[in-house]
Amino acid sequence: MNLFFKLIIVLFFSISINSGSFAFDLKKLQQKLEKNLKQIQKPKSSSGSTSNPLGGLLKNLNKKGLGTGAAGTAAVAGSSSSSAKSTQSNGNSNAKRVCDPSSVYGKLIKNLPGANIANLEKDFGKSSKEIKSLLEKNPPRSNDQIVSSLETFSGAFETKEIELLFNKFLLSKDLDSLSQMREIAGIKAGFSKDKKQIKTDANFAYGLIHYIYSSLGSNKNLGIQYIKNAAGSSDNIGALVVYGAWQFYGINVGQNIENGNKMAMDGYNRAFDKNLKVETAGKFKGMKKFTYGEKVFLAIASDNRNPYKQQYQNQLAQAAQMEQQVKADLAKDGQYRKSGWWPSLIEQQNRQHELLSLLGENLGIAKELSDLKGKYLVLKSKVSSDNKLLERMVIINQQMNERVQKALKEKDAVDQKGKENIANLQYDNDIMIMQNDRIGVGMTLLGPAGAGGFGEMAEMFKIVGLYERVACKIYSGVKSYAKRTNVQLKKPPTNPKAKFTRKFGRQS
To answer: What single DSSP character describes residue 205?
Structure first.
């Protein structure tokens, strides 16, 4: 079975019930809960109303045919197959979407407020130059296991405008995108439902960035306030998950176990609905899936402090079984190994390092890169026994890319062989971008258990995000160079499993 197909399937099976494996009757549980509803303490929802969170879970279990038996299984398989097919057949547009969001970005936000750097400087209490310097640094690991990586929340939005702005910021760390999110968060939405959601999404995005970078000098308290605003009456998927988890665990806010459970459930349900629709016509078409909310909710559902833990156990048992099966399948396919995702991430960085080295050779700066290549080689020999060294390898690749980008802007045209090499390397880089995206999908679907916990998952996502930043700079830099020097680029690959033009791994 196709690996990507398996990865997609686990998302749905982790929240569905298979009566063939478990003698578990969903209808009986639902009837029992309805019968005993009055005996169940009802937590306050995010909007202040009361409801039983199990009802939302059961609603999703029956949604889209995801109930018990063969019919439910067939519905899952059909939906998953469609998703996998769409992703693979549209690899070219996906690569472009990853690295060139401006193709649709400008049209979507033309009627929204633009950047106001002066307001941004007031929030940070710093000059624009200082803010830019701050954002270029890699935030250290946070003690908050729920929110420790921006990349984890790349799909935590319900409006294309803010999702595009947020992901543009992840790639470029530009002040204009950040400032624009801040200004949109302050608009008067009136009675417009669409504007309310855009405003709410912007609140979460802007607050999240302040929160993540607080150890480097941003405004943590302001970030928490913006996230709280986004979890209010007009709420956001990501904010419901984050603020709900904060309430449940007593992080940053007063502990409220029942309300935290309910908010996290609401976020999970909203994410579930979005994930089903990203491949179909409608407002979510073409947007990123957000499955991290499921991982957070499942952790909350299995916590001994959760008053509904017992009722969740059948769902959790099924999710655990499917997770173990997918891990076994991934191990066979070589994508997930004994030590988790780290080997795949290391392999990606090694390929990127080699690609940068080859670009440097063709641009005539091989000698200039030799010091960084030497440092990388030392780390490469030790990283298999110390995964933490990978972040230092990433930093070296970032430094190499800075020199390569400078050469792409300044160097004259190369000879015909050099042009062919650069065209081939651009083709290979496109494949790497798509493969990196697939790794991110796989990590998200398996969640913290497949990555050694929330903290380690966040570190891995950071590596995936940093890799993407470098790869996309190569993507844009080579395109500009090709246009300036008349290099004929190859037709972009359309499948992440396409063959590289060269055998990577022969040299460092």
So the answer is: H
